[in-house]
Amino acid sequence: MASKFLMQHPQFKLLITNLAFTAWLLAVAILLQQLATDHPVQWDMTQNGNNSLSDSTVNVLAQMPGKIKLTMFINENQGDMQQATRDFVATYQRYKPDIRLTFIDPEKQPEQARKANIRLNGEMLVDYGGRRERLSQLNEQAFTGLLLRMMRTRNQLVRYLDTHGEPSLEGNREHDLGKFGRQLRQNGFRLESMNLAQTPKIPIDTSILILTQPQINLFPGEIEKLLHYVAGGGNLLWLVDFGPLHGLERMAENLDILLTPGIVIDPAAEEMNLPATWALGANYPPHVITQNFNLTTTFPLARSIDWEESDAWHRIPLAEVAPRGWLSHNIPEDKPYFNSTQDVPGPITIALTLQRNINDREQRIAIVGSSLFLANAYSGNGGNLDLGVSMVNWLGHEEIFISPRLRPVKDDTVTLSKTDLGIINGSLLVALPMLLISVGAVLWWRNLRHAQK
């Protein structure tokens, strides 16, 4: 009778219901935990993607056989910085589990710090493939860039001319290519300027020569050295601007290239509130350089790159622009319009690659009808730097490194006033707990009254 009475008592029924619900909830939680362990899925909701890696970094890690050893020299009392480092390295370990991280306190182990020539607290040593590099700034761009440099087994030297008023790959003026040069260095290339008047010939250790628009005429002897370099199978990136070639006409003739006078007018740029003299690159012909490349590029004051048919080179257009535009004979002073007697309707090829087999190896040349697309003032637009670096990787026969540029580091600093901090603290520490307690009390009271009826 007592058990029958308990079974019919409302509070006992409520207890049984709560216990059954609790057991069901625990079973579901255990099942979900097992599923999460067997099939982990992650979403990175942070603005900067702090908890995930870019596709470029994942691709780099997939191509790195062998262990990576990380040794950070940091004081033990800086636990927050150590934990931040563990969290950062953990994002890499998801894709490459054989990354090992060790902390050494330079105050407790000064001899190890001295042997490693540690100068800064928080400095990290990276060991891979018998090579060692130092890292003092911990973010994806710096760390993956360092891994890229360590991956390169070939120490490729990129030379460029800058003695005739050409844009410099190490300059900071708007028309210089300094940002492009720094990006090449970050990707493991060495850069060196060259004075053709002071060297008998372009050195044999030149992996790639970058040729930009001179502002004064080259001497005939300098032209001969350039032609000799190309005839011998040298790889070349030639950035050709609108205007006089100052002696490089012979280079165009040697490569069977036709540089039609005029600049590209692109109505699509105007529709994006950009100058009509900027050609937009969005659709690219099939090429290793542009494989999986889906970024828009901008080419200010671009000129047409055409060619004469011959069997000497295998040519592939790299960028075609302005399908609704045209090649204007002159730079328009007012609103551009199509002159049917002088202008050439689009689409227009403004970038071209050339290949041939010579001296038992493949020679590669890329020609782009605008150096401004890699100038400091414009290289940050769309995928300009990505395309430039990919071209150099292709010219250096290192297609393995052709991928989008590493995700840039964003400033995620948040500055809050005392009032803002007070509101946040009051909301999280007082208001929210009181709200949850109140809701819980109301629900408990309602359930109790329902059980007593």
TrEMBL record:
Keywords: Membrane, Transmembrane, Transmembrane helix. The chain crosses the membrane at residues 423-445. Residues 160-378 form the ABC-type uncharacterised transport system domain. It comes from the Bacteria. Residues 48-123 form the DUF7088 domain. InterPro entries: ABC_transp_unknown, Class_I_gatase-like, DUF7088. Pfam families: ABC_transp_aux, DUF7088. This is ABC-type uncharacterized transport system. It comes from Candidatus Nitrotoga fabula.
